[in-house]
Amino acid sequence: MKTYKLYIPQRYQYDVNDLGCKVVTGTATHEVPVSLAQITRQLGDLINGFTITKGQGYWKGEEKTYVEEVYVIEMIVEGSVHFQDKLNLLVAQWKEDFNQEAMYYQVYESEGILL
């Protein structure tokens, strides 16, 4: 049995110039909320159950420390040989959809007890 824990930003930014918009002065960014409905729909196609909580992530860049609100998604998977391959494809899609340099998740052996 393995536990997968994903960290997904609750909001993301993109440069409006990337959308073909013309900005008269400087650069303009637009912040967009990540669609929790999209995440749950796509995960629901992949796995029968998961838990989503909200958290706050910190990471240090070269020039500043970044703080972002994140969704923490935890999934317990038993016996699915190809699950991680499918999850990698989904996370790669989210990386593009949510304009992220990288996305992170953890995988570890676990034991679950259902009473």
What does the largest sheet look like? 4 strands, antiparallel
Major sheet strand order: 4-5-1-6
Strand content: 35-45%
Oligomer state equals single chain
Shape: globular
Rg from Cα = 17 Å
Q: How many beta-strand segments? A: 6
DSSP helical segment count: 2
Broad CATH class: Alpha Beta
Mean pLDDT: 82
Order of SSEs, N→C?
A: EEEHEEHE
Known CATH architecture: 2-Layer Sandwich
The class by helix and strand makeup works out as: alpha+beta
Specify the helix fraction band. 10-25%
Unreliable stretches, pLDDT < 50, 5 or more residues?
19-27
Q: How many separate domains?
A: 1
N- to C-terminal separation?
17 Å
Ordered list of secondary-structure elements with their pairings:
Blueprint: E1 2-9, E2 11-15, E3 29-33, H1 36-46, E4 51-60, E5 65-77, H2 83-97, E6 104-109
Antiparallel strand pairs: 1-5, 1-6, 2-3, 4-5
Brief summary:
The chain has a single domain (about 1-105), classed as 2-Layer Sandwich (Alpha-Beta Plaits). It is about 25% helix and about 40% strand.
Describe this structure in words.
- A 4-stranded antiparallel sheet has the order 4-5-1-6, with no helix packed on it. Strands 2-3 form a two-stranded antiparallel sheet.
- It has a single domain (2-107), classed as Alpha-Beta Plaits (2-Layer Sandwich).
- The chain contains 2 helices and 6 strands, in the order βββαββαβ.
- It has helices at 36-46, 83-97, and strands at 2-9, 11-15, 29-33, 51-60, 65-77, 104-109.
What are the defining features of this structure?
four-stranded antiparallel β-sheet, alpha+beta, 23% helix, globular
